[in-house]
Each structure stands twice: as C-alpha cells, then as structure tokens.
Amino acid sequence: MSSLLTTALDGQHSSQHDATTTTHSHKRNLEPEGYPPLHAKLPEQQPTTATAQSPGVLVVARMAKSGIQYAVVDAFTAEPFKGNPAAVCLLQDAAKAADERWMQSVAAEFNLSETAFLLRDSSPAAAAAPRFQLRWFTPVAEVKLCGHATLASAHFLFTSVLAEHETLVEFATKSGILTAKKVAAPASAVASGEGKLFIELDFPMIDLVDCHPAELPSIPETLNGASVVSVHKSATAGDLIVELSSGKEVADIIPNIHEIEKCSGRGVIVTGPAPAGSGFDFFTRFFCPKFGVDEDPVCGSAHCVLAPYWGGKLGKQRLTAFQASPRSGILHLELEPASSRVRIQGEAVTVMTGTLLGSERNSSPCFEG
Fold this sequence. Notes:
Blueprint: E1 5-8, E2 68-75, E3 84-91, H1 94-97, H2 100-110, E4 114-120, E5 131-137, E6 142-143, H3 147-160, E7 168-173, E8 176-184, H4 187-191, E9 197-204, E10 208-209, H5 219-222, E11 228-234, E12 240-244, H6 247-252, H7 257-260, E13 268-273, E14 282-288, E15 293-296, H8 303-314, E16 318-323, E17 329-336, E18 341-346, E19 348-356
Parallel strand pairs: 3-4, 5-7, 12-13, 14-16
Antiparallel strand pairs: 1-19, 2-3, 2-19, 4-5, 5-6, 7-8, 8-9, 9-18, 10-11, 11-12, 13-14, 14-15, 16-17, 17-18
C-alpha cells in the first residue's frame, strides 16, 4: 500500500458482511512494545511518531491532525476479495471536490478501476433525501458514469455515515441525479443463497447503435478467434458490444489488449448467453485499457446497455447477469422501458477503511515494509 494511505484494520466480521483485513505479519499483536494500540486516539496538540522495525508492520509517523475518510468496498458480491473493488473518499471540503488534479492523483494512488469522491450536498433541493455530489476517476481519467463505484458509495454511506433509518440516498453526478436504496433481495438471489440485503441503483438505459466498418478493429485478432455473433456500439461511451456464441466462450476468452486499445470507443464489452441451468441469463466481460483498466472486474454501467439488449433477445424484463472476470460478480437487472431506466441490484462488502493523509502538506508515510 502506498505512502498516502493509513488503514484501520478490523478483525471482526460485521453485520454488514465487512471483511477481515490483515497486515503481512503473522502475529496478532502488531503494536510495538511501549506504544499505544494502533487504534488509540493520538493527542491533538502533539502529533506522535511510532515506528516498528519488523517489515510489513503498520506504523504511524507524524500523523496529520485531520484527514479524509475512505473505504475500499467490493461491489456486486457478498464475499470479500471478489466483485469489483472501489475506493470511496468522503470529502468535507468543497475546494477538494473541485480539485480535479488532486482527485486524479488519489485515484492513481489507489490504482483501482475507479475511485469515488463524495461531498454532502446541503442545498434545499437535497432536502427530500440525503444527497451527495459524486465523481468517479480511473487511475488515468474521470468517467461520467460508474455503476460499481456508485454501489460501493451507497454501501459505505448506509453502513458507516447515514442513520440506520435512512433507506434512500441521491447522487448528483455528470450523468444526472442517480438514486440508491436499500431493498430486499430479489427472488433469484434468495434461490441461489445470496444475502438478504441488497442495494438498488436507478440508472439511465443506454441504446445500441450500428457500427461503421471503419470503427471496428480486427475482431478475430482482438478476441483471438472467438465465434462472433454480432457487433454493435453503445450510443453514449461508444463501447463495442460483441456477442459471442456462448457464455463459456466469454469466460474463456483471452483478449488481445493491444488491439482493444485501438478501438474508437471507451472499450469492448464481450457478452454471450449463459449456459443452461446456470441460473443466469447472460455472461459479460469488459475490457477498457484506454482508461488504465485492462479488464473491469464487474461493470455496472455496461449493463445499462446490456440489460435492454438481452431483455429484447430473451423477451424478459428481469434478468440476472454474471460477469465472468477472474474476480466475478452478479447483477440483478430490471428494465423500465417507459422511463428508459435500468434498476441494477447487488450486494457489497467493505474490506478496508482508513484516512488519506496526503492532503496535508506535512504528512509523512504511514506504512513501512
């Protein structure tokens, strides 16, 4: 972990399915002899320096008096270290929320597919439900829509920030107002043994458009000879939507990332029908090397275009998708054609919490080893 971050490691599995995190040490007692426990509050007027000589042990060095709270949340999974991890940073300062260079640097430091930045919106329009400004950054660029980091943000707010009775939160984004709410698990999730508490995102439906031949890379080379059924393009981000003959081909494919990088749009979404008896309707993978993400483990926004595509092919308004990346993830989808919306339901689990210290000029590294 980088020098900007200090983590608060929790050894208990919480009621929200929060995961246990560990250091590289095999010992339970990580505090150097003679120093207070790692979670002890440091005196505000006398920043404390604590060091440990063992490699891989968390240390505290010239702690800043205040910092920015963050969490790393695995989205679209109930299991730690699966799904898609996103960093969620809760800002207290509007100036920080406007500092794109700083946010991009933080996203590069986390080096996850997306980092989300939240700022509480106290305007009168936000009175009906808690509302937060929300922006998403990959390690190299800002994006206008991100499903898994929105789910991660909602999970973080519901479990760590908002009062327990709050069931709805709104996000003001570059794609308009998005909502997230607590819901009971869909029937398909209960049947498969998934958890009981889900978060539902209300996202815009995205149309498919035809591709011009000049926009297409050499698909056989790009997908290493996979059996291509059709190729379309999303109307917004320009992602190529490549349907293969089977979900197994989707899961097994080894793409040519160099060729994918030549595509005119954001990236390439590969999809195919799920195997019979799998409990899913279709499989998906998403490759986005232009934005510093060779493969996005689970992409919520990609399903804003895939849900209507497969809904039309299968004649269904409720679908269950499996993202067949190495980390994998499950998305429960519901189409609302009249309002051109897609409801995306999924679970999430927090695997790490901590404080960003790099926002302070005199902060120092807080990890060693």
